[in-house]
Amino acid sequence: MFFATRRAAWRRVFLARIDFRQVQTDVKIAIVKRVATSGVSILLVEQNVHQSLKIAHRGYVMEKGHAVLSGTGQELLGNEFVKRAFLGA
Fold this sequence. Notes:
Elements: E1 3-7, E2 12-16, H1 25-37, E3 41-42, H2 49-55, E4 59-63, E5 66-71, H3 73-78, H4 80-86
Antiparallel strand pairs: 1-2, 1-3, 4-5
């Protein structure tokens, strides 16, 4: 999981790369939620599509280096392409 943070009010950019390989998914999600509630924007790259989209305000589906879909996390969870390609439905 990788995320970058930015505080627009300060006009400074904060970047953090966090390696969560050994951390359980529920703990990862709790950390991301806590950071997000502090007003910091997060760019999250994560393999667990379902959990990531459940908490995402906005999401993008990348294919061959291009964004092929975008929307709110809930919109993407309901999208038939996303369901078939990433959620095993």
